[in-house]
Amino acid sequence: MSTIDQIDFRTFRKLELKQHGRAYKILNGALKNPYVLIAPAVIIALGTTVFALIFCIAMSFMKWDLIWGTIEFVGFYNYKYIFTDTLFLTSLRNTIVFMVVAVFIGLALKVVVGVFLNKNKPGHNLVQTIMFTPYIIATVAIATIFRYMMQPTSGVFNLILSTLGLPTSDWYLGAQTALMSLAFITIWQGMGYGVLIVVSGLRSIPDYVYEAARLDKSSKPNTFFRITVPLLSPTLFYLLVTSSVAAFTTFDIVAMMTDGGPGTSTYMLAYYVYMQGIRFMHYGRAMAASVVLLLITASLSVANFALAGKKVHYQ
User: Fold this and answer.
1) pTM
2) How far is Cα 160 from Cα 166, in angstroms, rounded to an integer?
3) Which ranges of the chain would DSSP assign to H, the alpha helix?
4) What integer pLDDT is reported at residue 315 of this predicted model?
């Protein structure tokens, strides 16, 4: 190779590296931007969510016959129907009662157990691990277990009550006790997760705050309500919002244990949507009920932020 050819090759190589280097710098700079990295996932998530939401709202104004393949615009007929449907109103009432019991009693128990486990007593880590186990077990399995445990004649719950000389219960098979039985199971299943969050929040509170309270000779109840609860309020607020939404959209435990019964005593909004859409194939009514459920859930979250959010003290 001649000297001239070597010079031309080197010049070409430098230009090629320079061009590729510029592209590499641009690509490398883009990949270092976190927004670029998460953009594909965000686009897919928003696309599917927004499409499903728009489709649901649009179909709530339609009468959709999937068998004959016909779609007819009916305006607000589906909304008028569900708001005059006794079963829908019963489902709404049951859902509100279930949410109040499951959320507030569950939250109180989580705080009590969390405070106890935060004292670093022997075996507290083992207890916390055991309590967390039900949270990762499928609701189908938990429902099956409790169906046997709550049997009126052969269940272990009534066996314990009768052994102690206490009156037995019909549990999930009784119209008066079925809804509370489901609330009890829901509280039990979510207890471990809630306690874990509460303990994490308690351990984030600085020790010097409690030391100052001891120097001021503050009583334990006063310390708890004036120091622990305000500093734990972000954690409690998080549990309040997430638990409220989860309770309001409860479906699986109802479908697996009671099928909405006895009678309509455990009919809830999510189960009403399922029955209208899947069982009865009234898709327009199911979509309308879904939109109402979405609006109620969103309003519930906004109300939590507007009312309880004002009392949250961030450190």
Assistant:
1) 0.83
2) 9
3) 3-31, 34-59, 77-83, 86-100, 106-117, 124-136, 139-149, 156-163, 178-203, 207-215, 220-223, 229-248, 252-257, 269-274, 283-307
4) 59
pLDDT computed for residue 7 by the predictor: 47
The rounded distance, in Å, linking the Cα atoms of 184 and 166 is: 19
295: domain range? 77-311
- Nearest to residue 64, comparing CAs of 269, 276, 272? 276
Tens-digit pLDDT profile for residues 106-139: 999 999 999 988 887 777 788 888 888 899 999 9
Segment 184-208 shows an average pLDDT of 92
Please indicate, yes or no, whether residues 50 and 183 belong to a single structural domain of this protein.
no
- Cα gap 236→308, rounded to integer Å: 10
| Measured CA distances, 81 to 71, 78, 274, 278, 282 (Å) | 18, 5, 16, 18, 11
pLDDT tens digits, 28-73: 555 567 777 788 888 888 888 888 899 999 999 999 877 777 889 9
* CATH code, domain carrying 294: 1.10.3720.10
Bridge partners of residue 65, in order along the sequence:
70
What's the gap between Cα 141 and its chain centre?
Answer: 19
* Number of structural domains the chain divides into: 2
Which one has a higher pLDDT value, 12 or 246?
246
Residues 260 and 126 in one domain: yes
Give yes or no: residues 15 and 123 share one domain.
no
Crossing angle, helix 229-248 and helix 106-117, to 10 degrees?
Answer: 140
Tell me what the pLDDT averaged over the chain comes to. 86
56 shares its domain with 183:
no
Last residue of a domain, one of 73, 90, 124: 73
